[in-house]
Amino acid sequence: MKTIDLVVATNGETQMIFDDRLDLRSVGCIAIRRGSHVEPTLDGQWTADLSPVDGPTLGPFDKRSEALAAEVAWLQQNWLTRSRG
């Protein structure tokens, strides 16, 4: 089973990569923001543009699912673990 990682700051602010399996609306006010844009290229490949979180553009990938997996892996390694000050 795939896990859901939650990062909780000392002030109680929590962040995670969105996942439909966990509905946080019942615990308080939530704010969702885009982490990337996974889009097709003109030649039918896919890229994951992570500029919304100051990241790179990944790809090109042959399949959309590959771009989505790369997006999540990058967010887990570079955004979710980033120190929030």
What's the end-to-end separation, in Å?
32 Å
Q: For the residues shown, what is the average pLDDT?
A: 90
Proportion of residues in β-strands: 15-25%
Helix content: 10-25%
**How many domains, in number, for the residues?**
1
Largest sheet: 3 strands, antiparallel
Number of helices, where a helix is a run of at least 4 consecutive DSSP H or I residues = 1
Structural class: alpha+beta
Sheet with most strands: strand arrangement: 3-4-5
Query: C-alpha Rg, in Å?
Result: 14 Å
Number of strands: 5
Overall shape: elongated
Could you give the order of the helices and strands?
EEEEEH
Describe this structure in words.
- There is one protein chain.
- With 85 residues, the chain is α+β, with helices and mostly antiparallel strands.
- It has one domain.
- 19% of the residues lie in helices and 22% in strands.
- It contains 1 helix and 5 strands.
- It has a 3-stranded antiparallel β-sheet, covered by helices on one side.
- The longest helix is centred in the C-terminal third of the chain and has 16 residues.
What's the topology here?
Blueprint: E1 6-8, E2 14-16, E3 37-40, E4 46-49, E5 57-61, H1 64-79
Antiparallel strand pairs: 1-2, 3-4, 4-5
Short description:
With 85 residues, the chain is of the alpha+beta class. The protein has one helix at 64-79, and strands at 6-8, 14-16, 37-40, 46-49, 57-61.
Features:
85 residues; alpha+beta; three-stranded antiparallel beta sheet; two-stranded antiparallel ribbon; 5 strands; 19% helix; 22% strand
